[in-house]
Write a structure and sequence with these properties.
Diaminopimelate Epimerase, Chain A, domain 1; globular
């Protein structure tokens, strides 16, 4: 199976151009195999770029554990870059079909190749039960949850996929690597959840670490950064336009008041292409 390795500020995936490739097995089976950083290619998951009836292309995203997600913000910027650079649709404004609907992306080129991509991530979903959470409130802001005998105030947002945002003094390893996975799988979130630990630097600047549903800690999470932008406004901690410093790089975000959409701008990088052999014995 031919693949292309790409990353969006360090959130790296194995991409397959399904306009040209047939998958040798189900994506839920392939994702954990190719994501393995020792026995496979290495990545946070698998992303398929497929034909679409309603857009220039469709993105299907699978986490490293094989679970499919509705949306992937860093992944969508890389899909846009791939579609443009590889002439699937040579347009600087692309429409891409995702589990969160058809989203519009704006490409900035350099030497004829896509470099920066601005994504309209659509409108956040704030009703507790639609995120989904077990909470009835709309929005879910500063909601107390108990994890491992500790109490946390969480603000929950869906960008097509569920996010649990926690503002902290310091996003420590204890919080991200011990509390993160317990929140991911807690009974508060029927479909599990992505967890963002956020340090507020100023009203328009934050630092974020992320424990991702199905992939563990990643260097960046685009839908998570979008959820953080919304949660910052809902809790009165940040303005509608912020700069987010993630471990792998920076994202610019805005929750636009006029159209209620979140806009996210960041890089997308193609690292290498290759040929992957399906292991003889599937686990
Ligand atoms: N783990 C996420 C999908 C990837 C999201 C993240 N990598 C992004 O850039 O938005 C989920 O299960 O909802």
């Amino acid at each position: 199976m031919r693949f292309t390795k790409m990353h969006g500020i360090g959130n790296d995936y194995v991409y397959v151009n399904c306009f040209a490739e047939q998958l040798p097995a189900a994506p839920e089976t392939i994702a954990p195999l190719v994501s393995d950083r020792h026995f496979g290619i290495g990545g946070d998951g698998l992303i398929l770029i497929t034909p679409s009836e309603v857009a220039d292309a469709r993105m299907r995203m699978f986490n490293a554990d094989g679970s499919e997600s509705e949306m992937c913000g860093n992944g969508l910027r890389c899909v846009a870059k791939y579609v443009f650079d590889h002439d699937i649709a040579k347009k600087e404004t692309l429409k891409l079909e995702t589990g969160a609907g058809v989203l519009t992306v704006q490409i900035e080129t350099e030497n004829g190749l896509a470099r920066q991509v601005r994504v309209n991530m659509g409108q956040p979903i704030l009703e507790g039960k639609k995120i989904p959470t077990i909470f009835d409130s709309n929005p879910v802001v500063n909601q107390k949850i108990e994890i491992a005998g500790q109490s946390f105030d969480v603000t929950c947002v869906s960008m097509g996929n569920p996010h649990c945002v926690i503002f902290v003094e310091k996003a420590t390893d204890e919080l991200v690597l011990k509390i993160g996975p317990q929140i991911e799988r807690s009974t508060y979130f029927p479909s599990r959840v992505n967890v963002e630990f956020v340090e507020v630097v100023s009203p328009n600047e934050v630092r974020q670490r992320t424990w991702e549903r199905g992939s563990g800690e990643t260097l960046a999470c685009g839908t998570g950064a979008s959820a953080v932008c919304v949660a910052g406004v809902l809790t009165g901690r940040t303005k509608r336009k912020i700069l987010n410093h993630l471990l792998g790089g920076d994202l610019q975000l805005e929750w636009n008041e006029a159209d209620n959409c979140v806009y996210k701008t960041g890089g997308a990088t193609e690292v290498f292409t290759g040929e992957w052999m399906l292991p003889a014995l599937l686990p």
